[in-house]
Please model this.
Amino acid sequence: MAGLITRFAPSPTGLLHLGHAFSALTAARLAEDARGQFLLRIEDIDQTRAKPIYEQKIQDDLHWLGLDWPVPVMRQSDRHAAYDAALAWLDSLGVTYRCTCTRGDIRVALAAPQEGAPMIGPDGPVYPGTCRHAGHRAPDAAIRLDMARAVALTGPIRFVECGPLRQGVHEFTAEWLTRQVGDIVLARRDIGTSYHLAVTVDDAAQGVTLVTRGADLFDATAVHAVLQRLLDLPTPTYHHHRLIRDADGKRLAKRDDSRALAQYRAQGASPADIRALVGL
Ligand code: GLU
Ligand code: ZN
Model:
């Protein structure tokens, strides 16, 4: 079996744009250079936003770019049993709690004068901890990671970066993770899991040894490394790549259809043109 396994893991909530093409092409090239394997995974946990039509268009665009991957493709909407098992394990470690806060509650708590300016973590402003010791039992509450308890179990967290931007070993102290990342959501009340939990569980389930993703997810990777330690999963190597920006220097968004690959295709661009546009 192939040594290196990497993946492209899009959410089917819109059309692929140049930034996605760059990410997928980078992952596929890293796999090819190492004679490893490139996988596709569909990250459709948010069923209010994911659409089968986008999943189809994503696969069409990737095939058109010349990429190929083993089938059947892993789809996160099929994986809830695995996420529930991981949550039950984290719960048994005593590192989770239920949170009933609405976005509004969190905004109000963060605006309290004693809070000062909130730290910005991988999911936005760091949660102020309102429900940490509340002992909520509501079955439909969100589930958060008690980061202080988690890092008390794991100690400092490390991962190895092999991308050119920040190559080397990165270490995150318990203090940094508690202050700068905080009690992230493990399971949203509406979908029963979260990006962080699902991506961690699935990268391990697929035997991914190299995670290829955008540099915007660097701090999220620290969260995943914490979860890997708690769940006793291997920590892959990471390659965080540069982001593709538009002419104004803004990062490309899914809603920005002018940068959709489909638009370039419709205007007669070739896969080689796309590679050139993203600097490959
Ligand atoms: N579904 C995520 C995205 O599209 C995956 C990113 C990742 O974890 O590599 O942003
Ligand atoms: Zn709360």
In short: The chain has two domains: 1-78+245-280, 79-237. The domain at 1-78+245-280 is CATH 3.40.50.620 (Rossmann fold).
